[in-house]
Amino acid sequence: MSMRFLAIAACAAHLLAQAPARLDIRPAGRVQLGSTGPREVRTVAYTFTNISDRPIALRVGELSPGVTVRGPALDGPFAPGQSLGLTLTLDPADFVGPQARNVRLLTDDPHQGEYRLPVAVDVRADLTVDAQRKSLGVVAPHESPQAVFTFTRETGQPTVLRLTGDVAPYLETEVVPGTPSSRLLVTLRPALIPPGTALGLETLRVETSAPLQPRFDLYLDWKLHHPIEALPSRVVFLDPAVPVQTLLLKARDGKAFALEGADVEGAGFERGPLPAAAPEMALEIRRTAPDVARALLVLRFKGQEPPLKVPLSYLPGSKPPVPPAASPSGDPPPRP
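Structure tokens predicted for DUF1573 domain-containing protein (336 residues):
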């Protein structure tokens, strides 16, 4: 075979690949179907027009998952100038989120190559929660605030919710089933919060019966404010050469308060004399233990309940505790 013949054949193949389209398709290009529910079937009506001077026939080459096509455009050849319809149906079942689909169509003309019908849709989740993070805000020691997470099933099916993993002992949880919505109730019990803890960001892991949304991570933040603030909230002795530290007590409302009693529960520490009533006062804490020690300072204020509890500890040879990194919003990291 001569080189000239090969060159002519290659040129002819290139011209065939660039053959003008014989079918006009409307709508043209990618069709955006917007948002759809998990059981909401969507359709697109196409019109194919034979813009050539001879008949042409269509057949299906390939379909994306969940897509079907039917219509007279697939039943026989188009006469020149004839327009025939084709309906594309997309079933979003078993899919969630942004989805791209396509139909590849072939013709009986080997010079035409293929035609494609691209569509895009955003399939809504069947099960959703009204908010993945909620806040109880500022909580007083005598309060028991509650957060409610509401789960809704778009398909209307009943939903089973189950908490997994550890839940803090100061949180009470209850699942209230319903159709189409189920609720998770979370109640904070400040009396059970460990002494010295003033804020938290809780993580709640929930498993569900929805096949495509089997689990959710929920977050709940809170801040505990006693009328009298202790600074620091925990008194930690690290240096054996420093036997005394000062605990600052400050009224949040700026008014004078009276300290009626201060008892040390445990060994290794003693407190200094009780200061006189004032909006702000300093209480001396002395370490008496030669070795590692832990205790609890219980402060009772006139006209206020419950008492304020401040952990005391002596940890010789330990490094100063490194505070956990805060999130960009300034909140503490979630509780593990």
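Residues 3-17 form the longest helix (15 residues).
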